[in-house]
Amino acid sequence: MTKIRVGVLGASGYTGADLVRLAVRHPNVEITVLTANSHAGKPMAKVFPHLGHVDLPDLVTIEEADWGAVDAVFCGLPHGTTQGITKTIFDRYPDVKIIDMSADFRLRNVETYADWYGGAHRAPEIQPQAVYGLTEHYRDEIKGARLVACPGCYPTAALMALLPITGTGLVDASDIVIDAKSGVSGAGRGLKENTLFCEAGEGLSPYSVAKHRHAPEIEQEVSRAAGSDVFVNFTPHLIPMSRGELCTSYVKLKGGATAADLRKALADRYAAEPFVRVVDEGIMPGTQHVRGSNYVLIGVFEDRIPGRAIVISTLDNLVKGSSGQALQNMNVVFGLEETTGLEQLPMFP
């Protein structure tokens, strides 16, 4: 088949670079545009030497990019910067598909977006067309989408564990505590004091306590599954490693359900999913078991507190938590085999 011509907005960031890393081995993809305003004019090899052996177009500014020369655009820009560009592409290039890896279209309610992201939504007329890109749960809607809003890394890990059990009423959706940990790449490539080696190394630190922007995203989707408004207790932590993410969710069981019931519900829901595996009883998922891959591992444990259970989910924040899921969604949008370009196994050790 004719190759899908893709552009990557923000190709000099971690998610953009990982998207390129995966896409260059996708048999149906041709990368034709790479943007990075601060590195415009440079070859990709100079910004990311690990991609030096790949024939790629040089980086250009967003203004220089020819969106008429692509079939799909992957957006890897910081929040607040994608909406305007997306609106321009929507208006001028009606056939181009947009796979957004930023937070700009994840929240269905534009007022909620304004509350959490500190400014009004710049393309509210487009928001209703955005499909939430949690592939395993919105595959049918993604198939016909022009704009796919890929979930955040924390929401992907948490929701994969929680949606099948909150949607079936096995747990009390009003009593969920999520303890989350991410590698430093989750903070992006920009210079920040808390991600400096001396600040982040050899220590574990919580951040954005009770105010992380992924909380309303998790609540949005759990509420839809539960059929009522839900608030979750969500606390993220920065852990001194490059990539990887693990969410430990503490839940209250309902109706006499057991941890074994949760494990069965999850295993049944994901039995046909190529990238999700519910591990056997007693197996503990770890970030080292998914590193560099598009896989999610989920484990369920009985809590020592009667009537409660612990659900652990892990993924690579740059792959299934971002660029891998974006490529998976592109496959769905264009009617390709969903696993194409994504079947690499985890790197271990």
User: How many beta-strand segments?
Assistant: 14
Q: How is the CATH topology of the largest domain named? A: Dihydrodipicolinate Reductase, domain 2
Percentage of residues in DSSP E strands:
15-25%
| Count of all domains | 2
* Count of DSSP-assigned helices: 10
Which percent range fits the helix content? 25-40%
H/E element order: EHEHEEHEHEHEHEHEHEEHEEEH
Q: Per CATH, which architecture of the largest domain?
A: 2-Layer Sandwich
CATH homology group of the largest domain: Dihydrodipicolinate Reductase, domain 2
Largest sheet: 7 strands, parallel
How does this model look, in words?
The protein is α/β, with parallel strands linked by helices. It contains ten helices and 14 strands. The chain has two domains: 4-151 and 320-333, Rossmann fold, CATH 3.40.50.720; 154-317, Dihydrodipicolinate Reductase, domain 2 (2-Layer Sandwich). 28% of the residues lie in helices and 22% in strands. The strands form two sheets. A seven-stranded parallel β-sheet has the order 3-2-1-4-5-7-6. Strands 9-10-8-11-14-13-12 form a seven-stranded mixed β-sheet. Helix 1 (14-23) crosses helix 10 (319-333) and helix 6 (153-166) packs parallel to helix 8. The mean pLDDT is 95.
Topology:
Elements lengths: L3 E6 L4 H10 L5 E7 L8 H4 L11 E2 L11 E4 L6 H11 L4 E4 L9 H8 L12 E3 L2 H9 L3 E3 L3 H14 L4 E12 L14 H4 L4 E2 L8 H12 L6 E6 L6 E9 L5 H11 L6 E3 L17 E7 L5 E8 L3 H15 L16
Parallel strand pairs: 1-2, 1-4, 2-3, 4-5, 5-7, 6-7, 8-10, 12-13
Antiparallel strand pairs: 8-11, 9-10, 11-14, 13-14
Helix pairs in contact: 1-10, 5-10, 6-8
